[in-house]
Specification:
This protein has 229 residues and is an all-alpha fold. Helices cover 74% and strands 0% of the residues.
Length: 229
């Protein structure tokens, strides 16, 4: 497994894994600097290069477990900001695009069929919204207080986040199977493919998002709880 470093150019990293364009967008890195080493491109964009590389390595390589030194180099506020921007993307552009595709897909269905398919989508959307709201309203403020004060201000701990951290990708599997196997025969094949591509893309991105939370955020916060600032 090849790890990214701050000496690599941004463009070389994208060639290895083009899905890093999601990370680049969420961290505010401008592609006009893509030919530069990461350290220089990040400096020009006001992005912490060590945090950028830490997130990219976990995002691209599922088996990568960051070392203590890698975790220590990451900026907690920047990691939380990355996760926050990711949440906005999922609940905004990603789900809006999927919803528009679903609306077109079910347009020729009778009302009963429409209701069943769209209810499944809306239930998933609400579940995802609830999942992210918990992180935004409970987990992130807890981490900020812990980071600022150097000690826990409540009985809450990051272990509770891990317990609450259900797999938000599972229902996408069910949605994929509905589209692939159970829609009426007259359903447009082209639209089915479009919806499936959106589902697969979202599923993959959410899976990587979970890696970042589990392999970066959780161990960093566990260390803060144990050692203070």
């Amino acid at each position: 497994m090849k790890k990214y470093t701050t000496e690599m150019s941004v463009s070389d990293m994208i060639d290895i894994d083009y899905s890093l364009l999601q990370v680049i967008s969420r961290m505010g890195l401008d592609l006009k600097y893509a030919g530069m080493p990461v350290s220089e491109a990040c400096r020009k964009c006001g992005v912490d290069p060590d945090t950028f590389i830490l997130i990219c390595n976990v995002y691209s390589f599922p088996d990568h477990v960051p070392s203590s030194a890698e975790l220590a180099s990451g900026s907690v506020p920047d990691i939380i900001e990355y996760l926050h921007v990711s949440h906005l993307y999922y609940m905004g552009r990603a789900l809006r695009g999927l919803e528009e595709s679903f609306d077109r897909l079910v347009a020729p269905f009778d009302e009963r069929q429409k209701k069943v398919v769209l209810k499944f989508f809306n239930d998933y959307k609400n579940e995802l919204d609830k999942h992210f709201a918990y992180e935004e309203e409970v987990v992130f403020p807890y981490i900020e207080t812990l980071r600022r004060d150097g000690k826990r201000a409540s009985e809450y701990s990051i272990e509770q986040f891990e317990e609450h951290h259900e797999n938000v990708e599972e229902k996408l599997e069910d949605m994929k199977n509905i589209v692939m196997k159970y829609l009426p025969a007259e359903c447009s094949n082209e639209l089915k493919i479009m919806v499936l591509l959106s589902i697969y893309h979202l599923h993959d991105d959410l899976r990587r998002h979970t890696y970042v939370e589990n392999n970066i955020l959780v161990p960093i916060v566990s260390r803060l709880e144990r050692d203070g600032k």
